[in-house]
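Work Package 3 (structural annotation) set out to generate three-dimensional models for the target panel prioritized at the project kickoff. During this period the team completed the workflow that converts sequence records into discrete structure tokens, so that structures can be stored uniformly alongside our sequence database. As a representative example, we reproduce one entry of 317 residues exactly as it appears in the project archive.
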Amino acid sequence: MSGFFIQGRFGSVGNFEVVVPSGSAPGLVHYWRNNDNPSLTWSEPTRFGAALGAIDGGVTLIESNFDSPGNLEVVTSVGGQLYHFWRDSGPSFTWNGPFFIADGVSGVPGLIQSRFGTRGNFEVVVPASGGGLVHYWRNNDDPSLPWSGPTSFGGSLGSVDSVSLIQSNFGNPGNLEVVASARGQAYHFWRDSGPSFNWNGPFLLSGIFGSPSLIQSRFGSQGNFELVVSTPSGGLVHYWRNNDDPSLPWSAPTPIGGLIRFGFTSLIQSNFGNFGNLEVIAGTFDPNVGAELAHVWRDSGPSVSSWSFPFIAEIWV
């Protein structure tokens, strides 16, 4: 997954980790939820990256396999440039960066650590400032950790707002799969696992709008695609693709009740519940009212159509 929300390997259950642009100061802010605490308390904010100023793009967060249990890794776009931060696994838990990756980008990027290479390469897909998308990758088997790219694709879309990136279990070691938001619609691309490494698409996802967040879940034999997107009214809806059906059909939308003001989202499948609950952090940044994050979740069954009422994780101005 490639959003700003993950369940990491810190703690016995695995803490929730969130990194978003700061609503009240330059740079970025990190929150974490202690999932070993029965009250499931969220931390106070840790701010970093103030040298970048106000973040006008987006943020993507992973936990890598560098160090133990794993460094937090962030890629963000600001002022047309792409930067990397990382936070050590302890004991200091210090954020390091920014480290410049590339320029000529805009919007919300997607970052994963893939199954390409022995260690697992970093893969980034981000909107290009001139239209379409670009793909960069970092060779984590090379001690100098060089970035390669860009590989451009999707130019027919024109200006792209945001990207969600995963590595699926289609192909070997797994195709890269992207859902991108452009012109008020969502589009799917995929890149084969080799030897040609061609990007395929765009494929319009009919009736699906706005800023996307894509995962491959543990529902179904192959593992369904789960997608949460924003709507023109500012709410959120959930779609899923049946990957056990050869025609790969997408479901009808399920509105996520109560979220009528939120324009961006990040989706995971946690280890709460059997198979794992779907968990969403949604947010909005409004210069007139500040910034707000909310948390909603959907149980693993039998009432899998039931999304919880939103819990406000944090508000700041």
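The chain has a mean pLDDT of 92.
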